[in-house]
Amino acid sequence: MIRANRRELLGGTALAAFAAAVPAAAPAAVLAQSPKATTPDLFVGSGGHGHTFPGATLPFGMVQLSPDTNNFGWDACSGYHQSDRSIMGFSHTHLSGTGIGDMLDVLVVPTRAPLKLVPGPRENPDSGYRQRYGDEHAEPGYYRVKLASGVLAELTTTERTGLHRYTFAKGPGHILVDFAHCKQESEAELIRIEDAALALGDDGVLTGSRQVFRWAEGRRIHFALQLSRNPDRVQFYGDDDRPVAAGARGVTGHRLKVALFFDDAGSAPILVKTGISAVDVAGARAALAEAPGWAFDRACTAARRIWAGELDLVRVAGGTPAQRTIMASALYHTLMGPTLFSDRDGRYVGLDQQVHTLPADQRAYSAYSLWDTYRALHPLLTLVRPDMAERFVHDLIRQTQQSPYGPPTWPLQGFETGCMNGWHSVVVLAEAHAKGIKADYAAAWPNIRKRAFDPGYQDSLATLGRDHYMKLGYIPADKIREAVSRTQEYAYDDHAMAALADAIGAREDAAALRKRSGNWRNVIDPAIGFARPRFADGTWWTPYDPIQLGHMPEPRWRDYTEANGWQATFLNQHDIYGMIAHLGGDTAYEAKIDSFFNAPSTLPANAPPDIAGLVGQYAHGNEPDHHAAYLYAYAGAPWKTQAMVRRLCTEMYKDDPDGVIGNDDCGQMSAWFILSALGFYPVDPTTGIYVFGSPLFDTADVKVGAGRTLRVRAIGNAPDRPYVQSVRWNGKPWTRNWIAHADVVQGGDLEFTMGAKPSRFGAGTADRPPSAPHA
Q1: Pick from 242, 262, 260, 264: which is nearest to 251 by CA?
Q2: Tens digits of residue pLDDT in 558-599
Q3: What is the chain's percent helix, strand, coil content, to nearest 5?
Q4: What is the reported pTM?
Q5: Counting CB atoms within 10 angstroms of each CB, which of 431, 443, 742, 766 has the fewest?
């Protein structure tokens, strides 16, 4: 790929270099094509630091049945990394694209090799039960691999049950269930596991339960595993891999395993189905009803059919074959979670650690990466899956009511992890209300209000420093870690909470919160134009260096969240015109953004790996500035937004395992691509509007619910023609550089005319996007 000079790009000349690398297509010929659903590549993001996995799951399903190639270290967060080249086995729960790992429950290891109870290291897979592999294939709802010991493994799923089909070569074999297997930070780390039990019932069903103290500290998992034929011998193993007496029907302890032996494993395929539950074994057993009998192929066909319908939500024509694959792969990754968390009978574990039961028409969900996904993933779902967006809103309201911390931050498997900063579930709720999703928002308000106004309300790690914030208007950098980012993110949550207060008629609370949402100003030093650590006595950190992570009084102290001073400066999403005025007006602000994208791409030695995908100091591989390229539109220079968005779409995403520039973060990185490639993006989701960028494809059909379709067309589009010359909406001229969600969800024809040179389209003051004080 030819990489252009950043200064040329912002000046509008670099795209000629892109055009030389990718010949322009004939626009008329491309527009004659019908948009089509493209097949995703499930290995996109499974290398590099994308932290995705290729195994079988259903959209938003409870089970993610996938191979585990490793279970320790950062690049094992999903249990799979394309470079590992050996498989430990197949576990039933995984996180997609996260920067912290957990899950990997109920590891099943089919093999013809002699029994081994430890996996062994990646560097020497033959020393343990790991297996080399080949002929790996993955598609939505189905995974297949040939293991070196002579086992063909095939996987598919229902919502709550994983289905395996193992075809052994002739002769003996066994299946090991390693119930001690879980995510670790290092190979030597011993994760705490309590209340573990395995038992073989009279009906031949193997059941198990355990409590795991990892990221979701203390979560419980229960399973029920059924085999298509009975093993010839069963051997249980207790702690320290001690064998239990022959003939035993179970074992209890902490780190348990069981081996199921077959004298002639190759006489017929061995099918396994495993139901899971976070509530109890009864819930796991009930999950098996989703897969009656042993019709693996029928279940696989059903899974494929479900995915085909989901992947038909967005169809595109034009672009390159690689870009169409990237689009389909991104859409797949955005539909994997949040993940189902309630049993077939409606029972689930709430954030209060109590078991609750839902009405038949409702469901509970887990794995909300809200610090990431409020930005684009949830807005995308409100557009293409409004039914799921409504489910998530009802679920987040319940979680807000049940959690001892109020509005969730990063809830996982019935626990508030307190990961990242803020309580951005309120942003998802405010966005949903703005876009017309009906829910009982007032039911969430008592605990939201406590989080907003009660300094004594219980804090998680995500909400520290609220007392300082309420008293001083900012969080002192000498008192609380990541104080600058916290101040800005709490201010954004104030903005979202103000919208919710207005929605339920709490006018005084709304006014107080709206005023407090301006607290971002207290950590943006107008004298230097940067986000700057500020101490309890009101003084600023000096000497200031925007490259650094902060004043660092001790090694792990940071003043910004996964960012430095440059990146934190552009965090403001809700009061952009206030920020423009704070920094000296349109010209100064535009120049500041120019400097951001043109600064040397240097980072301090202690920078976290999350700060990746640099263009200047902009880091596309991490979420805090995902909206930054669109900020030019607010300063009257939308053509610079168009050039930069096109560059990011073409440079930061590839159709290979290292195709996601940073962690996919439960679909946020993918959602950014989908929306930006369509030509618009929700800079502040709570306003219910999308800012125009530069559509990547010549035609896109987007199903927006209720049988309606939004068609986006880019007339005259080509790699060297990223600039919007004019826009028409349903055949009529459109002068604004943005469009409302309420318009696009009605369906219609959004037509961009593209050109090789910047135009003044949308640059006038009246045509710029609204922001909080002007919404």
Answers
A1: 242
A2: 999 999 999 999 999 999 999 999 999 999 999 999 999 999
A3: 30, 25, 45
A4: 0.95
A5: 766
